[in-house]
Design a protein that fits this description.
The chain is an alpha/beta fold. It has helices spanning 3-28, 47-55, 59-71, 86-92, 102-105, 119-129, 146-156, 176-189, 212-223, 240-243, 285-293, 295-303, 314-318, 369-373, 389-405, and strands spanning 109-115, 135-140, 162-164, 198-203, 206-208, 231-233, 244-250, 255-263, 275-277, 282-284, 338-339, 356-358, 361-363, 379-381. The longest helix has 26 residues, at 3-28. It is globular. The termini are far apart. Bound molecules: 2-acetamido-2-deoxy-beta-D-glucopyranose.
Length: 436
């Protein structure tokens, strides 16, 4: 080989190496971003890809998402005119029909759902939290139209571990009735055949961020038979809630709590020190038994009838007593039960609401997905599937994938969330009852 030939060979070898290196580097990177066709007729062809891109906060997906959101339809609401075919309902809506691990089977949870509207949102939440080993009490507002109650009753009748609270209250925002509704469920839950370990309460516009397995693990390992009742000693600016007499006002059109000019005459019973905190909790079975039986709990309940939003002092006050089971007198705000985007927390704890605000609380939109799936709390609030159906579908697919990936039993094909291409029909055809 002469020097010229050697030179050519060397050059070839070096360029081959360079090419190979470039290949390796580009292979290691993420594949080039998929070109999202802004062709809304195709929205239904790749809901999983679109959802993944949205969950990752990819901007390329946002525009398509916004278009698809308008065309997307949520599963049809339960038709109250006809008897529900339960086996069909369970199959079509991908309900999980078997405990997914021994760990979960031996640690059942009790859920209290206080609901009054948004049937589709409620069913979306319900199929996300439903597990056959748990027990569910649904309190349907007494003021709600009969059709809503019938639909929820039809849904509940498909499961032997789901029931409607037999004693229904007319629930007023900020009123005593909200607290009473939880207690009505508890009275019945303690009689259940299910030996549940913790009770959790939800409203109809919540959604879980943790799988059942993650919840069970967290309660067993992190909380170890302690209640999660975030809260602190009642601050001064809240004291008017419990020093003035309040009354619930209920009419068919609207209901609210009125603050009267009268001061409450009695101090809290048993010299109880009032706390202020979350109306949402995770309570141990023993603590719930205690609340239903203990004299201080009963007297505090009676005393709280004319206070404002007693659910924000009742649970946390009792859960700070040194002798209550599951109580922790030194606890403060720890335990993140809910992720909420409050309007006044914009750019403080969150990046702004991409949906819309209702009563200073964000109703999540598509653009909130990335933020939501990064939260560490147990649940998030507030959702309206009716207004943000694609966002809802992405949330439930994200949670279900996580749920099934943690399963220890063989996964049944019916447990994967089905996609419904017809929901995206660009012609505007009403094909929302066809499941693919
Ligand atoms: C309920 O639906 C299932 C599955 O679609 C079907 O096989 C069954 O015949 C239906 N039952 C009734 C009573 O309609």
């Amino acid at each position: 080989m002469n020097p010229a030939q050697l030179m050519v060979l060397l050059c070839a070898a070096v360029s081959a190496m360079v090419c190979f290196c470039i290949y390796l580097v580009s292979k290691g990177r993420e594949p080039a971003a998929r070109h999202w066709h802004l062709d809304s007729a195709r929205c239904g062809d790749y809901p999983d890809e679109l959802c993944s891109a949205l969950l990752d906060g990819k901007e390329v997906a946002a525009a398509l998402g916004a278009q698809c959101e308008q065309l997307h339809r949520e599963l049809p609401a339960i038709d109250t005119g006809l008897p529900v075919n339960c086996s069909r309902l369970l199959a079509e809506r991908s309900y999980i029909t078997q405990p997914l691990s021994q760990e979960e089977a031996s640690f059942p949870l009790a859920y209290i759902l206080v609901v009054h509207k948004n049937l589709q949102t409620l069913e979306w939440l319900f199929r996300a939290i439903y597990m056959p080993q748990n027990v569910y009490c649904i309190h349907v507002d007494k003021k709600t139209p009969a059709g809503f109650r019938r639909a929820v009753a039809q849904l509940a009748a498909c499961f032997d571990n789901v029931f409607l609270a037999s004693q229904a209250e007319s629930v007023v925002y900020g009123g005593f009735s909200r607290l009473q509704a939880d207690l009505n469920c508890m009275e019945e839950l303690v009689l259940s055949r299910v030996h549940w370990k913790y009770a959790l309460n939800l409203c109809g516009q919540d959604f879980p961020l943790k799988t059942n397995r993650e919840l069970v693990r967290l309660l067993k390992q992190r909380w170890k038979n302690k209640n999660i009742t975030p809260g602190i000693l009642q601050p001064d600016h809240i004291k008017h809630r419990t020093t003035y007499v309040h009354r619930e006002y209920i009419s068919p059109a609207e209901s609210y709590v009125i603050k009267t000019q009268f001061r409450k005459t009695a101090a809290p019973p048993h010299r109880l020190k009032l706390y202020f905190g979350s109306a949402y909790y995770a309570l141990t079975r023993e603590f719930v038994d205690f609340v239903l039986r203990d004299k201080r709990a009963q007297d505090l309940l009676r005393w709280s009838r004319d206070t404002y939003s007693p659910d924000e002092h009742y649970w946390v006050t009792l859960s700070r007593l040194s002798d209550a089971p599951g109580a922790d007198p030194s606890a403060e705000w720890q335990g993140s039960i809910r992720s909420i985007k409050w309007l006044d927390q914009t750019q403080v704890t969150h990046n702004g609401c991409k949906g819309h605000y209702v009563r200073n609380i964000c109703v999540y939109g598509l653009g909130d997905l990335e933020w939501l799936v990064q939260r560490d709390s147990l649940f998030a609030n507030k959702f309206e599937v009716e207004n943000h159906p694609l966002m809802a579908q992405c949330m439930e697919r994200w949670l279900r994938r996580k749920t099934l990936s943690q399963s220890e039993v063989p996964i049944q094909p019916g447990w994967h969330m089905k996609s419904n291409k017809c929901f995206f029909d660009i012609e505007g055809n009403d094909c929302s009852t066809t499941l693919t």
